[in-house]
Amino acid sequence: MISRRDFLRNSSMAVLGATLVTRVQAASLPEAPRQTKATMTPPLLPPDGRPYNPVVTLNGWTLPWRRRKGWKEFHLIAEPVVREIAPGMKAHLWGYNGQSPGPTIECVEGDRVRIFVTNRLPEHTTIHWHGVRLPNGMDGVGGLTQPQIPAGKTFVYEFEMKHSGTFMYHPHADEMVQMAMGMMGFIVVHPKNPNQYRVDRDFVFLLAAYDIDPGSYTPRVAEMLNFNLWTFNSRVFPGIDHLVVRKGDRVRIRMGNLTMTSHPIHIHGYNFAVTCTDGGWVPKSAQWPETTIDVPVGALRAVEFIADAPGDWAFHCHKSHHTMNAMGHQVPTMIGVDQKGIAEKIGKLVPEYMVMGEKGMAEMAAMAMPLPDNTLPMMTGHGPFGPIEMGGMFTVVKVREGLAREDYQDPGWYRHPPGTLAYELKDGPELD
Ligand SMILES: [Cu+2]
User: What is the rounded CA–CA span in Å between residue 298 and residue 300?
Assistant: First the structure.
């Protein structure tokens, strides 16, 4: 947490969006809570204002606010952060309030929000409130609707959240660099009527991609397509939280895409309908069943289903390269190539040389190859039956009977009732 003295030092000459902030005003800035860990915090029940069912941010948290004179006040600090991408790898990113992505902002349709944005980056920034319909001067486009927020300064955004829905925030200043460095966050505006669009569990995350060379910590910001870390909320499998769900719950999963390619997100064991986009709620008559929904670049999609089938259901991007961690794409296909003679010859020069890829690449998931520091295996994570052979944008929806309403703790692996598990055919009596 930042100290008041730091704050005064940094904001004593701060210029705000419309007005100059005096020292007295600066001292009245709301606190800016910070998060140092990449773990999911329990949903934040609203301490004041209209009631709503709060969302759960995968590997993230919701930003607390202060109620003051009819405003809901939030304080975001844009700053360099260290994000654990998965156990074994940390990335040096830019984010908000200690993490990338920044904290989720939750409020209610009709709320008047005042968002203080303090810039502790080495360069200027802004925040654009993607999808939110607001006065033009609050739209956060550097140069077009406001001067950029210089390093060390604080700007104030004030507007009414007129529409409920699914939105996000990100800079509109040196965008290529700042988004490649992880500056983004989720916004959820709950409906005024808590029974409208009601679900039991409401998960949110952003799709982000990074290009971090093996052995290094900082993303290559000039990369356009060839990323090597495909993330849900700046985490890769097996570091992504599981989506723990009580059997019978109505579940919503909201996803926003701030990468530079689309992500066909697929669920096993269920079908779902798109119920909300960053454009608003989708009328029932316009919904249809899907098991995969393409989340386009710069868009948000919310899907819903009733969790009536217990189990551990895979939930992932269907682009198979996006369920892999750092890998080279110039690897030749070796399937069917007899490498025996070659291995012997190279082995004389490079004693630890391994022959790989002759029968496919599944063996890589089980192999313990030496890796540079701060580098994740290409595919990893173990399940109850062995290596899962995945990385990147992959997690598990765990549907269980009899969980408590607020219980999001990992219930362990699913135990399949007798007769419901695929099995090896062995010699013996005929099947029924
Ligand atoms: Cu993808």
Answer: 7
Q: For residues 270 and 164, state if they share a domain.
A: no
**Residue 121 belongs to domain with CATH number:** 2.60.40.420
- 319 CA to centre of ligand 1 in angstroms: 5
Is the same domain home to 127 and 237? no
Residues 178 and 73 in one domain: yes
Q: What is the pLDDT of residues 184-220, one digit of tens each?
A: 999 999 999 999 999 999 999 999 999 999 889 999 9
Which of 160, 180, 198 delimits the end of a domain? Answer: 198
Q: Are residues 396 and 313 in the same domain?
A: yes
List strands edge to edge, sheet with 311-317: 243-246, 394-400, 311-317, 263-267, 292-295
Distance (Å) from CA 211 to ligand 1 centroid = 14
Q: What is the mean pLDDT of residues 104-114?
A: 98
For ligand 1, the distance from its centroid to the CA atom of residue 254, given in whole angstroms, is: 15
Q: What is the pTM of this model?
A: 0.88
Task: Identify the domain containing residue 314 by its residue range.
Answer: 207-322+392-400
pLDDT digits (tens, 9 = 90+) for 291-332: 999 999 999 999 999 999 999 999 999 999 999 887 655 566
pLDDT of residue 369 exceeding 90: no
Ligand 1 centroid to residue 59 C-alpha, Å: 19
